[in-house]
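Structure tokens please, single chain.
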Amino acid sequence: MRNRLFFMIIALASFCHAQQTPVFSEYNYNPFIINSAHAGALQKAEVSLTTSGFLNGFEGSPQSSSFSFRSPLSNNQMGLGIGVISDKIGVTNSTSAFAAYSYRVPLNLDDQPYWKVQDPTGLSFGITAGFQKYQENLVDLGLTGDPLLSENINATIPIVGAGILLNYAKFYIGVSTPNILGDRFASEDNLSLESPYYSYAGYRFYFSRLENLLLKPSVLLKYEKGAPLQADLNLSLTMNSKLEFGLGYRTNASLNVLFGFYIFDSLRLVYNYNAAAKELTFGNTHGLSLGFRFGRGFADE
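Here you go.
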């Protein structure tokens, strides 16, 4: 009975909050999954794999994974990308597949005195199109007295997203939504999904005397109707483009710690640990992020 009550709480919460917020290592090292404007933001193509929640102690606790590929086109002003995101929480499963296109307007950097420019500068616009497969196996709860929980939900939802990214030398800021349609064209009527909206910004500090150190503070805000505004405050330190450490705080009272290292110039592995600072339902989670970048890889960071 205790497990059934636990799953019922998860199921009811998932009606309004079906898709989890990406963890620290996901959106900081692969922002393309929340903003299509990043499709062509790098000088070379990149493949990313992420997973989180794979060592959670609770049955039905959140698990997520993603795959993405993004690449600039030959003129370095347009970019293409594809992605697949899978979320599981309790009796709810959500899988999204999408393709993205971006266009970048270059900005002049002649007035910049700094020796380092990480990504191509400019104002980028992106659009996303795809679909989301949403399932709630409510019958598995075994609660026959409530009509809301007596029938499974199996819906297909079209995805149309948009994003804007400004990258200027060491500063970047972005605004995006993965799906502006919400559940308007869902294949079933007994579904309530809201569209999340993201805004984020960061700055890269390159030390003039220790040019092998990069300090990057960043902030991410998430707004979703029916939920409180969520803020993530993050700080990462990269040493010699070989080792990376990070700390983060999420306003739902959770702390993030990450450690990353560059196996080769083109291959980066990041481990992320999310610790609940209070007595939260799902406890602590572990995550991994693997990225491969073509060309010189991450050596230019």
